[in-house]
Amino acid sequence: MNLKELKELILFLKEEGIAEFELERGDVKVRIKRAAEPGSAPLGDTRYFAIPSAAAPAPLVGAAPAVPPASPAPPAAPVQEPEEELHMVRSPIVGTFYESPSPGSPPFVKPGDTIATGQVLCIVEAMKLMNEIESDVAGELVRRLVANGQPIEYGQELFAIRPRK
User: Fold this and answer.
1) Cα–Cα–Cα angle for 30, 12, 149, nearest 5°?
2) Is 139 left (phi over 0), alpha (psi -120 to 50) or beta?
3) Per-residue pLDDT tens digits for 132-153
4) Helix, strand, or coil (residue 140)
5) In the predicted model, is pLDDT for residue 71 greater than 90?
6) pLDDT in tens, 99-120
7) Which residues of 108-119 are buried (b: 16+ CB within 10 A; e: fewer)?
8) Could you tell me the sign of the dihedral formed by the alpha carbons of 148, 119, 105, 92, in that order?
9) What share of the chain is helix, strand, coil (3-state, %, to 5)?
10) 8 A C-beta contact, residue 164 and residue 139
11) Residue 123: which of 107, 104, 110 has the closest Cα?
């Protein structure tokens, strides 16, 4: 691998937002790991949220004393949604999620659609290959859990389907 190829590879990884890459070709081994860009923090998973504990945290040494609020907020009653058995379609590969076969065309499926077993739900692009993800159950599509063009991980939940009984 020459210097020009290496520079092109680095530019490609930067354009695609890939932080870590390793290539082994014969006796040549290349490992590229980019540091996070300043000012950009990774986005947290919005499905999880923090629940404050009843115990107050220990004060930091030299920190200003905390001022308690004037009136404590009443605890919010948790909203209980009825439990329903939803089948989760998970990604079999790491890649980029696409909801439609091409830009500008309608999505393969949308919430409320009736889904058949083997029906194409989306495309996951991995290494410039377009992989069709098919439903493994028949039923009604309840939710799409990822955004179009979003990078996804192996095993990540993509769709929630209410199975037909």
Assistant:
1) 120
2) left
3) 999 999 999 999 999 999 999 9
4) strand
5) no
6) 999 888 999 999 999 999 999 9
7) bbeeeeebeeee
8) positive
9) 10, 30, 60
10) yes
11) 107
